[in-house]
Design a protein that fits this description.
By secondary structure, this protein is of the alpha+beta class. The chain has four helices and four strands. The protein has one domain: Arc Repressor Mutant, subunit A. A hairpin with a 2-residue loop joins strand 1 and strand 2. It binds zinc ion.
Length: 117
């Protein structure tokens, strides 16, 4: 399983979202993740220990990321459907973390100068 990159920040359109880890998010907000669109911030519960917590943080991150993307493309209405968000982000996580066969673009270095189709 490939770890999903959880960056400190990322850009979407003209905004920069920052990701912050908190020790007590679950206690304070009863949530493992929370997105604040106004301040462009994703808050994640810090988890430590075995690989499972890492997997859980990744899933929560992609869940919150799905909310961000839908909000920023003007489809926040879809983001209100938590079941949709959960299914989409879990499917996205599986695709990203199960990649095999190496970095495919490295095998096409000869075509690097060609236009994308
Ligand atoms: Zn949600």
């Amino acid at each position: 399983m490939i770890p999903i990159l959880i960056p400190a920040e990322f850009d979407i359109f003209a905004k920069t979202y920052k990701i912050k880890m908190y020790e007590n998010l679950v206690l304070a907000r009863n949530a493992e993740g929370r997105t604040r669109f106004r301040t462009c911030q994703i808050n994640l519960q810090k988890m430590t220990g075995s690989d499972y917590p890492r997997l859980e943080v990744e899933r929560v991150y992609l869940h919150e990321l799905a909310h961000v993307i839908l909000h920023e493309i003007g489809r926040a209405d879809l983001g209100e459907d938590e079941q949709f968000i959960e299914l989409f982000s879990n499917a996205f996580h599986q695709v990203l973390s199960s990649g095999r066969g190496g970095e495919i673009t490295k095998t096409f270095s000869a075509a690097a100068g060609r236009k994308r189709q």
